[in-house]
Amino acid sequence: EAQVTQNPRYLITVTGKKLTVTCSQNMNHEYMSWYRQDPGLGLRQIYYSMNVEVTDKGDVPEGYKVSRKEKRNFPLILESPSPNQTSLYFCASSLSVYQGAPTEAFFGQGTRLTVV
Amino acid sequence: AQKVTQAQTEISVVEKEDVTLDCVYETRDTTYYLFWYKQPPSGELVFLIRRNSFDEQNEISGRYSWNFQKSTSSFNFTITASQVVDSAVYFCALSGSGYALNFGKGTSLLVTP
Question: Do A104 and B98 touch (CB under 8 A)?
Fold first, then answer.
């Protein structure tokens, strides 16, 4: 079954404690990205990756890191989480980017992160 | 800059009513893509449709239909004969020369029996 898998689904952590949210897709997609969803703000892109070893900042990259060592995996790293990073996070993947636009994006189930 | 406006924050209808969700966008790109996603109460995001800027044909998929009008920069979504299972938050999104999906703030649809 084609899917994007995020782990964990729920996470409560304390300020400053490094954490990683994993994302894996089984569709051999080139393009992957991370979004955060906040009430009243909709979804905003954090980072994206066009392919292995190619990553770039989205609209709200501060406080986050990513890596793309393998095509299927695109982890999101919070080196020193703060309460303002409490949010619902989504990983997404697309087969390709055509003329600057992602094709159909498949989203993971979401990770609800709370930083206290 | 890309911008998507979904002016309807919440809509409530009774089952079997038709309902239209509005989406107005702004972009300076000549080539762009418009999307609709559904987010049911379980939280996942489900892709519904993608439309490119050169294709203004309306689309129908079962009870769902989409009306794309470049003249008014709108990409509206209509659900015919709504059902309780249609209750969800619906997002319109735009992608242009950048590599991000720019989402509207979403419209929460509640369909009551």
Answer: no
